[in-house]
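Quick one before lunch.
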Amino acid sequence: MRLFLDTANIDMIKQGVAWGGIDGVTTNPTIVAKEGISDYESVIKQICDIVPGEVSAEVTSVKKAEMIRQGKKIAKWHENVVVKVPCTPDGFEVTTALVKAGIKVNMTLCFTANQALLAALAGAYFISPFLGRLDDISTNGMDLIYDIREVYDAGGFDTQIIAASIRHPMHVIEAAKAGADVATIPYKVLEQMMKHPLTDAGQAKFMEDWRKVSNT
Ligand code: E4P
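Model of the erythose-4-phosphate complex:
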């Protein structure tokens, strides 16, 4: 399973790539607003220059024709850009049109296996089921990843599953076991994945003992 960062924060993306585990990025209007970004295009282009893999940028119109126009424009920003479109009735139509135009689409705000099936039939490149938001309403979000994996494998679909709305490191491991192709994670979760108190304590002891026998 690959790891993407779910942020538009340039410093965090640079650090994630430097650590080595991150090869793509997902953004959405909330993430962009959080960073106070007014020029979406230039930030996405900057991100594309940092990460080697796909970078998702979302359409922000609620009108079909405008979503298609925006999607076509966004797709031209960089060869690694994937256009993010919501799993709404209009979104499926927009995805079908964009895919016909040869554009890669990440269908977002997915909360059911039926939406994921329709996304695959529309030719979506990625589907983004939101685990954490389902957990938030007392529904097991991870079950959705298992269901989508089963549906895609049974149907021979090659739409890739991005486990999204990840809240903690256990989500990442469980999503990998469930067969997600990608997990898109907040920077904080990436930090949490690396940390263990026994690693810190063990390293401190190694350094303490080493100082007793060495001048280096
Ligand atoms: C992914 O593409 C989404 O932008 C993101 O994972 C949503 O996460 P949230 O539920 O924490 O806002």
